[in-house]
Structure formats: C-alpha cells, structure tokens
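Good day; I would like, with your permission, to put a structural problem before you. I would ask you to consider whether the tokens describe a fold that such a sequence might reasonably adopt. The full record is reproduced below for your convenience:
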Amino acid sequence: MATFLYKLGRLAFRRRHFVALIWVALLTLAGVGAASAPPAGTTSFSIPGTEAQKAFDLLEERFPGTSADGATARVVFKAPSGETMTDAGNKATVEKTVSDLADGSEVASVADPYTGNAVSKDGTIAYASVKYDVSGMELEDSTKDALEDAAQQARDAGLTVEVGGDALQAVPHTGATEIIGIAVAAVVLVITFGSLVAAGLPLLTALIGVGIGVSSITALASALELGSTTSILAMMIGLAVGIDYALFIVSRYRAELAEGREREEAAGRAVGTAGSAVVFAGLTVVIALVGLAVVNIPMLTKMGIAAAGTVAIAVLIALTMVPALLGYAGRRVKPTGAKSRLLGGAGKKNDAEADGKPAKANLGTRWASFVVRRPLAVLLLGVIGLGAAAIPAASLELGLPDDGSQPTSTTQRRAYDLLSEGFGPGFNGPLMVVVDAKGSDAPKQVFTDVSNEIKGLDDVVAVTPPAPNKGGDTATITVIPDSKPSSVQTEDLVHAIRDAGADIKADTGAETLVTGSTAMNIDVSQKLNDALVPYLVLVVGLAFLLLIVVFRSILVPLKAALGFLLSVMAALGAVVAVFQWGWLSGLMGVEETGPVMSMMPIFMVGVVFGLAMDYEVFLVTRMREAYVHGEKPGQAVVTGFRHGARVVTAAAVIMMAVFAGFIGSSESMVKMIGFGLAIAVFFDAFVVRMAIVPAVLALLGKKAWWLPKWLDRALPNVDVEGEGLRTAEERGSGPDEDRELART
C-alpha cells in the first residue's frame, strides 16, 4: 500500500492543476445540486420491529385519512390572576382563536376546549388541539405565521398563551461557537507549524471536503428523507477528521523535507507513510459509522452512512489534494525545525542545530522517557482516573428529548409547563392504546374490557372512552399517566398495559398495542440497549482484525480496544454528570437536566471508537516503524513520541475544539453529542493514548509485537511503515536481513 500511495502522492504533486480542478469541480457540482434540490420534506422516524411502530402502522391502515403523521399544536391558555377560563370575556377570546385557527388551508381539525373537556379543574388553564394534514417540516410559513398570530391576538386580549407540539418545529442552528471552534483549530495549526501557509492547508482542505459532503447531503435530503441533524453530524465529524488527516500528511511532509529530500519526493513519502495511517484510521471510522446500521433504526443508519461518506471524502482529499496544494505552496512550507518569519526566524533551523549541538529533547520525548521509566505508576494512575470519571455512568437513564427538555425561553417549553400545572405531569405524554378486535366475535365488549382493565392499573389518571373506526373492528383509547413522560413510573405503566393486553389476547384473540411518542421513546431505548452488544462485537471485531493487519500484533490491537472502552465509559460518565445530574450545566448552556438521549451510548461507541483508533494508528505506527528498523521496544516508544506526540496533541486539541463548537447548538441532541465527543477525545488522546498506551507497551516489551508465525504468513503485508520506500542505502542491510528484522 505504501508504494501505491507514494506514487499517488507524487502524481498529485506533479499534476496539481488537474487534481485541484477535479476537487473544485466536485465542490461546484455538489453546491449546485444543493442549491437546486427541493427542500427536505418529512423525516420519517420509524422503528421497525417495535410494538409502538406496529400500532402506528395499524392506525394508518384502519383509520385512513386521519393524517397520523401530521403536525400537531396545543394552544395553551391561562387566565389572568383572579379569573377563570370560563369567564365570558376569556371564553369569547378562546372561541375566536379556535375559529381563526380552523380557517387554515393545512388544518385538519381544531378541538374546542369547552366541548372537548380541555379545561383544568380549577378553571385557570385550557388548551385547544390543532391537527394538520402535513408534518411539521412540511408546513408552509403562512400556516406557522397564522398559528403565531392567533396566539398573539389572544395575548393582546389579556390571556397568557403558549404553543406546544411540533407545528412550530424549527431547524436547529449551531451558533457562533462553531466558528470559535474553527478559529481555535486555526490557532493550534499556526502554533504547530509556525507558518500561516502550512496551517492554512489543513483548514482549506477540510472545509472543501465538508462542503462537498454537506452539499451532497443537502442535495439528497428530499429524496432520501435526511433530517437536518444528519448534515450537522456530518459537518462535525468531517471537519474534525478532515483537519486531522491533512495535519498528519503536512507534518510528515515537513519531516521528510528536514531529512533533505526534494519536495516531490517528500510529498510522495508523506502520502506513502502518513497516508497509509490515514487510510486505516479512516477505515476504522467508516466501519464504526456504517456499523450503526445493525441497530435497524433508519434515521440512525442514514446519519451514520452520511457521516461515513464525509469521512471517506476527507481521506481522499488528504491523499490527493493535500500533496497538490503542497506543490502550490512550494518553499512557503518549511522543513520541521525551520522557523518561519512568523515566529521571528528566516527559514533556518533552530539555534542548537545551527551551532552543531544536539537539539534539546522535545516535550513528547521527555514525557515518553518518563513513562518508560515509571510504566506501572502511570498505568495505574490513568486507569484509576478514568474509572473515577466513569462512576456517574452507573446512574445512566435513557430517554428521547421532548418539549420538557427545551430551554425555558421557548414557547414549547412554557406550554409544556402550563399543561403540567393545569392537568398533571403525565398529560404531556399520553399513551395511545390501539385495540385490534378484528378476530373477535364481540369487538365492543373487548374495547370495554380493555378500558376497564387499564383503569385498574397504577399510575393512571384518566382513560378516555374507546373510539372505534368505521368498520368497528379497531378502537383507540387514550391513557393519561400520573407521572411525567420520561419517568420510570410511566415506563412501568406501558409494560403493565402490554402485559394486560397479552392476557386479553389469550382470552379473546384481540390484540392490544401501546403507541404514542412516550411509548415510542421507551421502545427506542430498549432497541438501542439490545443492539449495543452486537454492535460492539461487530465494530470492535472488524477493527481488531484491521489493526492486526496494520500492526502485525495481537496485543497492540487488544490494548487499543480495552483503552477505548475506558475512554468511552469515562465520557459517558461525564455526559451523565452534566446533562443528567446538572454539574456545570450553566457553563454548558444546559437549561434542563433529564435522561440522556437514548442514542447517545451506541452513537458514542461508534464515533469514539473510530476516532480513538485514529490516534492509535498515527502514534503507534511511528513506534512500530522505529521497532522494525532496529530500535529496542522502549526506545521505539520514545521515538514514536518524539515524532508523533506534538502532532497527535495538536490533532486532539483541534478535534476537541471542533466538537466543542457544537455545544452552542439549539438542538439538545447536537449539544449533547458535541460535548460527549469533545470530552471523549480528551480522555482518549491525553489519558489513554498518551499515558496508558506507552505504559503498557513499555511493560510488554518485545511481547507487544508478537504475532504467531502462521498468522504472519497468512496476513497481507500492507507496509504501513513504508519499508518498501526505503532504499538499500537507507536500510543499511541486505534485503534478507531487513525482511527478518521486520518480522522480529
């Protein structure tokens, strides 16, 4: 592989005009496609194989024309202090609002509070339910404006009015912190390279790659039903890996220049060596993201595949466009150790080297030497520290965000709070029970029996009378729990209704199903929990095999996988502490604590595993490269850190800055993912890869690179270290001796 990539790097350097033209053309094509594509329509959230989804599909079949997936709105009214909603003036205002809302072209129905028993017992709060023919993302702006205008007119009449539901659903935005993240990345690159030109290359190529990826997602959003979160996730991961991959290529290029090679040769060798690490690191990320398909949640699968496509683009750009731009930069990109005018130099090497004295050991060398001398102490300190950070993960509670997790500044959240105040906390998460009595001889009696059975269960506040369809064989029953939607009590109630339904089915043949957003959330959490172990086995197993090929070792990939588990558990602990317990919630902009998003554990496992393997590949390949070239195991660890620690540190800081930039998002899901990934990168890069990995390698010695001879012969030789690029003079030995050394 190294030889092929070496040739590719040299070709891109020589034919830089052609390479640049291709990527600019692809960016233009994707941009035109995004600009001309129809706006994204509804994003279907289906969960195949769950009871909630089965009930939803049954509703579509037995209650045609009811727009089961249409947007909803709850216009909540509260009377001024000392008044009630049944006072003549307040009642007239509400009835006028209902009449105005019913005139909308996309409105399917509006329920009057006074005829639908939607006034609180104390008479101070009432609500009108609005049902639309289309989903919230498909509603026209005029319809949303009419809803807001009607609410404002009622406010002007003296009532407190808030609007809940998904009718006013807005496209999430990331805020200014995303730009700050990119700015931090730029500063780190300038400090790392000491040159604006060298620092600008990774940023430019990453932005081009993300532009192509996100524009392609936007162009396909309508056809593939991709949600707005999909492009945000692709941007988040694409920016981070795009900058990092280009950073490693440019850093290796400068190191090759420092060894006296011509620029084209240096570009070829940089792509042949660091580029090999980029390919395998990118493959681990792609495997982890595409592997999300095993969960069988279409939305999660699409998010994973879209982000994986952006990562693949980042890899291709690093292998082709980076060497092409290095050709354009010419002498403005200086060898490692040469100071640029930006830092007060004139392109010469540091003073120690200029005087013929040995260069001072850098921080990475000094740290690695310390770890090699004290490996057990460093290992124990790292493991205990991550273990302590992981303790909050034992209290992990999962759920999906609803209006109750919105900021208190939003009308949706204030409507949620008003409904809880007037009708109880469970009113915001009603359960819909669907009774399929098609095979029963007495459907009406079955409906009544189910209703009576549910009334006798704990945590039930109200049960509406059965509402049969036109055929009389299916009915819906709405159940109002006594607890809030995300509570354990509500989850227990869902399971209790399903257990009661199983007994009724045994007696009558009628099937009882529970659906609604609350039941759907419960089913999603369960499905994700059930898929976590198979997903771990698939992703970690495939990446383990890949790393065996890369490192030609059993223990190094095993250590990499165990270190990843430590970092991801510590990161989950931090997420629980902030978003569930409320630690530092003000600093993170978390206005409401609650359960951690159901998708967070499995999503973090996938993404963090891929990113963790990035640093493992980049750092440890340098160590193996030194080892197969004759250095002792301990010295190889130090050499790997001397060449790679500064660059890996810069890459980790950049990735943390990019992810942290998304903490400013208005979408709680994006905010949580941004924080989780940023803290996970911190734990993995600075604790696992910078401390635990060298400590373990120092303790293992030569055993770290052990591989059974039969397996060594069976595995393909991908030559990540670039051994095939070394000349006989550079090897200093014959081919036979060198080949034996590489197998030692």
